[in-house]
Amino acid sequence: MTHMTPPKLLVIAESERDGLKLVTLAAVGCARQVAEATGGRFDILVIGAPVQAAVDALQGYGAANIFVAEAKELAVPTADNYAHVIVDVARMHGATMLTAAASTFSKDILPRVAALLDAGMLSDVTAVVPVGDEYTFDRVMYAGNVIAAVTLDGPVKVFTVRASAFPAAEKSGGQSPVVPIAVDRASLPNRIETHDRVATPSGRPDATEARVVVSGGRAIKNAADFERLVGGLADVLGAAVGSSRALVDAGITPNTLQIGQTGKAVAPELYIGLGISGAIQHLAGMKDSKVIVAINQDSEAPIFEIADYGLVGDVYAVVPELIGKLKLS
Amino acid sequence: MKILVPLKRVPDPDTKIRVRADGSAIETDGVKYTVNPFDAIALEEALRLREQSGTVEILVISIGTAVCQEQLRAGLAMGADRALLIRHDGETDSLGIAKILAELVRRERPDLILMGKQAIDDDSNQTGQMLAGLLGVGQATFISRLTIAPGSGRATCCRETDSGLETVTVSLPAVVTTDLRLNEPRYVTALGIMKAKKKPLEEIDAASLGVDIRSRTHVTRLTRPKGRSAGVRVRTVDELLQKLREEARVI
Ligand SMILES: Cc1cc2nc3c(=O)[nH]c(=O)nc-3n(C[C@H](O)[C@H](O)[C@H](O)COP(=O)(O)OP(=O)(O)OC[C@H]3O[C@@H](n4cnc5c(N)ncnc54)[C@H](O)[C@@H]3O)c2cc1C
Questions:
Q1: What is the Cα gyration radius of chain A?
Q2: Which residues, 6+ apart, have CB-to-CB distance to A327 below 8 Å?
Q3: B residues 179-208 near A, CB within 8 Å?
């Protein structure tokens, strides 16, 4: 069905010096789905410096244009400068829908963009359904206890998509024209000064991108045990690691590992929870995983109510055995 | 220095949320309400800034019906100086709330707006960033540390991002939103509650502010997510491995 007024989508890519953040492809996947369903089109905007690697990685997905705003002032994302550029591009090209994958990057910047465009915004959208000339969006609220169907008024709609709810776009071939955007450096607000950015080193895949996630909870007593048990099991499975808030609060794991309502949302093929009780706030970030395994010494732990396979036992005994047997095979 | 801290009334995080059978709203019977946990962290941080430097006025604001007085009283009992209830009954969204707050910032001229990064009811994580955009001021979101050197007019914040930690400085006035690890809010004491009774709680009708707060987002239906049911219990590591290999085929 073709919409009366087909949308012009603008996907905001998330890129780092070393290239594209893969979650961007979920937003591209969503935009493409909406464009195909409505006869609309989508463009992608890449901001930063350098951006070449990200731009190359975005070729072949069917974007009408890849807009590129490259300037050394934009090397590090700051909400005010990035919002300024995004608003300019959105106005110049008449974008009617702006989207990005939900992450701390987009959550920092897109609400600011929405305010500047006087547009309504929805966060963590899990489905976009065209209805007549409008749309219904699904999103989760109340720590994943409720799914809300929501409509958005106004000529411009802004939303972030939950990466785990949209399959990453697949390449369909073809080159998208790369269109440089002139950045007027003097007009950048420059209200936020970044001193340093300390990426937490991991050497393991990101939990939002991995096929298997091994996650540890309060049962794990210290960072060395976390590395040995959670990290050890993850490594034999080629998995990412995650943790409950309890471990982040205790300083045992970095904030980047927190899964849940106020951390990351993941939906891997296999999620293994080690000594995690299954608080609703944690479940909010992982219960869409395909297969869930729980290992917990308390047979009444709520996580067993949602686990496909539950093993009652002490992680300090079970996990080394598991690692040993996996290594043998 | 003057700090504005918005407090949202939300269902207690430990309450079980149920959707009404007709999908129109959540069941409110028996639901306990509280100050949004992230907002309590914001207020705690404001109180600590006052304890460090002495001359800080803390204004707490809530937007909603008369029931929000309860959360404002809780904020006053924690130690805020003054409370403002913006009376509004009806649909709102983050942008509408941000516009009300922007108007109040113009009237009250705070140096800092300290807010929760997200409300645990709608989980939107938008209002602070929208407010900063409307005001054209700097923002620092999801922070786990805040330092304001006296007289510097600047706030240095450590932000928690998906890839690690980032330190930023913003000139005041600015909007700063809190993450969970910034601090642990104090408990309200009996003495605090007594004192709160004497502190000013002013009410203003939202309509009198002259801002357009029509909601652009409309919730049309609520549903429960597909539940997962408990699977099977395995007794040994061998059994677990066998199931994962042969039944689930995920390893
Ligand atoms: C506003 C708010 C936001 C929140 N956001 C999040 C969030 O995003 N993510 C999140 O995870 N939490 C979040 N929480 C916290 C959440 O409510 C829980 O407190 C937290 O998830 C508990 O972590 P846990 O399961 O590791 O610890 P606990 O609940 O303490 O559970 C530990 C489990 O380990 C088991 N155990 C102990 N020792 C062993 C052993 N040797 N072997 C096997 N099992 C053992 C115990 O039986 C228990 O079930 C939030 C809370 C609030 C109020």
A1: 21
A2: A236
A3: 179-181
A270 neighbourhood in chain B, CB within 8 Å: 244, 248, 250-251
Q: B26 forms bridges with which residues in the sheet? A: B19
Q: How many CB atoms sit inside 10 A of residue B57's CB?
A: 16
- What is the CB < 6 Å shell around ligand 1? A 217-219, 244-246, 258-263, 275-277, 279, 281-282, 285, 296-298, 301, 314-316; B 13, 37, 120
Is the model's pLDDT at A122 over the cut of 90? Answer: yes
Measured between alpha carbons, how far is B143 from B157 in angstroms, rounded to an integer? 6
- pTM here is 0.96
Give all domains of chain B, ordered by start, each with its CATH number.
Answer: 2-250 (3.40.50.620)
pLDDT of residue A3: 56
List the domain boundaries for chain A: 8-187, 212-328
Angle at A150 (CA atoms; ends A144, A152), nearest 5 degrees: 135
CATH superfamily of A212-328: TPP-binding domain (3.40.50.1220)
Judge if ipTM > 0.90: yes
In this chain, the answer to whether the domains covering A8-187 and A212-328 adopt an identical fold is yes
| Assigned CATH class of A8-187 | alpha beta
Measured in residues, chain A has a length of 329
pLDDT in tens, B89-105: 999 999 999 999 999 99
